[in-house]
Write a structure and sequence with these properties.
The protein is built from 7 helices and 8 strands, in the order βββαβαβαβαβαβαα. By secondary structure, the protein is α/β, with parallel strands linked by helices. Helix 1 runs parallel beside helix 6. The chain is globular and about 45 Å long.
């Protein structure tokens, strides 16, 4: 499988799905550093990365900036239409896309992409429509688990370690 783009939902995938909102309206999200390492490793082997999420959040923009996501789309109702624009720009097909989602709004993409994935805490309907279900929940390393599984289809564990060691200055968690 030649995946050229990894696309992620945020709430329930990169986070545990809980929303923490302070009395001043500030929204807080917890991200797992191992997911960040996985995203960095995927980028090092030339896989582009994108976030398509229905919510808008300064925390998401900050994390996406830290990890140097290629595309970040927030406040999106029609995620499939947004993905179509990205793949048209890159010049790839849906079969070259890996997407991880956890809820009903992810189904239109999950049923189109080459490698649909879900975290363990995804709703059952989603888990029944994907090729890979992580053992981990969203926000608890599910993205890293998915990326490791993807990379191990092409690289040995030793090659992945060597990739990290040879380019560790570029790795961001």
């Amino acid at each position: 499988m030649a995946i050229k783009l990894i696309v992620l939902d945020v709430d329930g995938v990169l986070t545990d799905g809980r929303l923490y909102i302070g009395s001043d309206g500030t929204e807080y999200k917890a991200f797992h550093t191992q997911d960040g390492m996985g995203i960095s490793l995927a980028k090092q082997v030339g896989i582009k990365t994108a976030i398509i999420t229905g919510r808008k959040s300064k925390a998401v923009r900050k994390r996406a900036e830290e990890l140097k996501f290629d595309y970040v789309f927030e406040g999106i109702h029609d995620k499939l239409k947004t993905l179509q624009k990205i793949i048209d720009e890159i010049g790839i097909g849906f079969e070259e896309v890996c997407y991880m989602g956890d809820d009903l709004n992810d189904i239109p993409i999950l049923t189109k992409v080459g490698w649909p994935c879900a975290p363990q805490n995804a709703i059952d309907f989603v888990k029944n429509h994907v090729a890979f279900v992580a053992d981990s929940n969203g926000g608890d390393g599910a993205v890293r688990e998915m990326i490791d599984s993807l990379l191990l289809q092409k690289y040995s564990q030793e090659e992945i370690v060597q990739l990290f060691l040879s380019k560790k200055a570029k790795i961001t968690q």
